[in-house]
Amino acid sequence: MFNNGNHLTPEELVKLDRQNVWHHLMQHKIFETQEPTIMVEGKGCLVKDVRGREYLDAVSGGVWCVNVGYGQDSIAEAVCEQLKKLPYYAMSAGNIPAILLSQKINALLPNLQRVFFSNSGSEANEKAFKMSRQYFRLKYPQKDKYKILFRQRDYHGTTVAALSATGQPERKLGYEPLVPGFIGDLPPAYCYRCSFGKTYPHCNIECARVLEDIIQSEREDTVAALILEPITAGGGVIVPADEYLSIIQEICRKYEVLLILDEVVNGFGRTGKWFGHQHWDVDPDMVTMAKGMASSYMPLSATVVKEYVFEQFLGDPSDKLGYFRDISTYGGCAAACTAGLESTRIIEEQNLCQNSAEMGKYLLDGLKELESFPVVGQVRGKGLFAGIELVEDKKTKVPVSEQFLGKVLAEAAAQGVLLGKTNRSNPGYNNVIAMAPALIVTKDEIDRIVAAIKKALEKVQL
Q: pLDDT tens digits, residue range 339-356?
């Protein structure tokens, strides 16, 4: 019989956790004096821990991914039926859920045509880098067009190449040397802290136009691709100016640089549209996705590309090196794709993109009222994706300390609301509260989130 742990007491579970589990992003020395958090149950936007404490989860599973909320029985039931029928076969062959999910993704992204499945956002981006390099080596054998450009503050994954493409210095410390050929000179699209000391809209969108200088400096014949998050996520929930992505795209096309948009966080309704880049006039060559793709009921990701990228890999079958020589063991798993299909159906049939847009506006309106606090420098976001940048002084914009930010989040948690934050990313600038509640969130739940932050800001003093 399956052991679900229900016979164990909270004390026994805490002891077993301390003895056996290596948690993510945690200094385990703290567990000598405090208990590890153990979550046991979720329904809607609420989660419950092993001690029976209930929280409103304003970060959709801690890392912004349970888009349709907890307790969606139809996903569990669909996955169960698929597991009974066929749990898995490698994607060297097809399976029905993978075929149908590919068709659905292509309908949501009509300008892209081919779907390559994997099982995490990091891996989806790794595939995009490998595709970009091999694409140009097949197309221009006499050149070496291999460099990948990335933007400061963007995060693209935890594997070594994805980390090499991440613009968050603290995440890289201790793991050097990283992969060569990744260039992070592009400044963030960050109007609140403009790298050029200018003010929008009187800035000529320099943060985008400088891309041309970077490509020329690196030599255009060496640059394969640029990867960006449409809205910078873990780097501070930074929304670009409306002109930004179209300028970026124009420069990429001028120099034949593939534009990869990382929709791992932004995708599947998070920003009020199916994909974050759909708010702007941009037509990427590749889109990567994960998290909300199956609302994390199963691990699933994909790299979606234009047909001309795919066609470059069509060659003589006798050429053993001419195709995309890559595999993801669990990528395209029939059960995971089933979860993706059902999660996507729920988003579509329950109009959750629209709810994200409407409730997101309601959330931002509520948070904007907090800008009267001396420590609130800026509120920003799009859809159900919002950030509050905290500062010691509004004029100088000196960031609050990580300790201060931690106290604010702890106070909100004491009120039963779980918030996120910029975390171990940018030295001296880990000062943003992040929110990404499930797309099913209600006005009452948003009111509770805003009220908890307000009370925390009132209570915690610099």
A: 999 999 999 999 999 999
